[in-house]
Automatic annotation (TrEMBL):
InterPro entries: TfoX-like, TfoX-like_gammaprotbact, TfoX_C, TfoX_N. It holds the Pfam family TfoX_N. GO terms for biological process: establishment of competence for transformation. Residues 126-203 form the TfoX C-terminal domain. This is TfoX N-terminal domain protein. Residues 22-113 form the TfoX N-terminal domain. It comes from Edwardsiella tarda ATCC 23685. PANTHER family: PROTEIN SXY.
Amino acid sequence: MIIKELRMNGLLDEKRRVAESLFADLGQVSQRSQFGGLGVWCDGVMFALIAEGELYLRGREALGRDYAARGMCPFIYTKRGFPVRLNYYRVDAAMWQHPHSLADLLQRSLQQARSDQASRLAAMMRLHTRPNISINMERRLYRIGIYSLEDLARVGATQAFSQLKEANHQVDDRVLFDLAAAVQGCHSAVLPRPLNEALRQWLQGNAHRWRYKK
């Protein structure tokens, strides 16, 4: 599977042979369409990308800065006509000449992808431990990029509610109070009166934003 897809994406035979060996050492590797190319997955996480005949390695924060310092160029994905820089960095020609070093970079990208997934799962569990946050609501928050209580507090209850409403206009107004209570660490029934009143006024002032959406 890997060999066939790499050839289809234009990698030269020499690169393809190196990639075949490196991926085989990682374990059960699979691929699926992603960002106009093919995402490379292992253990349920995506750690590399094959696009435009090149191999890109995932690198975020410190790892991404390290890749950039090595001269690895980030992958630019065009979404709706706008360029978006992704946290995937191109393996250049010189790196293919040093398979052992490249194998180390692959492992680092895979380890970070695993760590990121574990952090997201742990964050979701933390959200679910708060009063009023059900498993279903936890999943909805995850879809709009809120993975933890820290994220929810940073975004704020009203903004998070707005994003949920934009995704599904049938979200009940009570969700706003549930989100605010989660940040406060209490049940929505015992929200401080000034906060409760402020949220009600905010709802009244913003109801028109979703009233006519279908």
